[in-house]
Amino acid sequence: MAVARERNFTRAAELLHIAQPPLSRQIQQLEEELGVVLFERGTRPVRLTDAGRLLFGQAVQVLEGVDEMKAISRRLHEAEKLRLGIGFVASTLYGRLPEMIRAYRAARPQVELTLLELNTLDQIAALKDGRIDVGYGRIPFDEPAVERTILRNERLVAAVPLRHPLSLHERPLRLAELAEAPLICQSALNWDPRSARKRDPLVRCVEGAFRRGS
């Protein structure tokens, strides 16, 4: 191949990092084995004979086929890798999610984990289009294409200044009382009335506060 491309025995030998005599002997042995002459040696530059051109064309196809098989093998190897895409809202990092990820990695070291920080609604879209395989969020939603499992229930706590009127109550606060106060809570992007449960009193409370411009 090198001699056919370079059309010169010396340059081909340099390209192959061998001396010219061994290269010439290898070509002679190949010609003897095939029973044909591959090169016209009396010409400058060296030219292929008809048999040489035929063999060169076949050799090129074989090498291209080998390269293609290598590429296919690499793609198959990549496809066989086990991957798990995990979506999460940032606040779950303060819970058990990091511990769960460490435990999973220890139990399944062959699985490549991909973590994506997404709000709950974006996680639903990512689950549906295959960007993630599982998501950890905090907002209830109704989506027939996504299976939802409650892992834990958490208490909601209202934090108010010491002199705030709501801090004077010794009893638990009612959500209706919070609707009249300015609220700092999760991003309004998470409170989509199309997906949040209308029967959820917290959703109604927050939506009412936003409608009042609080």
TrEMBL record:
Respond yes or no to whether keyword Zinc is given for this record. no
Q: Which UniProt keywords apply?
A: DNA-binding, Transcription, Transcription regulation
Where in this chain does the record put each HTH lysR-type domain? 1-49
As one GO molecular function, the record gives: DNA binding
One cellular component (GO) term of this entry: protein-DNA complex
Checking InterPro entries in the record gives:
LysR_HTH_N, LysR_subst-bd, WH-like_DNA-bd_sf, WH_DNA-bd_sf
Matching entries from PANTHER family are given as: LYSR FAMILY TRANSCRIPTIONAL REGULATOR (PTHR30346:SF17), TRANSCRIPTIONAL DUAL REGULATOR HCAR-RELATED (PTHR30346)
What does the similarity note say?
Belongs to the LysR transcriptional regulatory family.
Q: What is this protein called?
A: Ben and cat operon transcriptional regulator
Q: From the UniProt record, report the name of the gene that encodes this protein.
A: benM_6
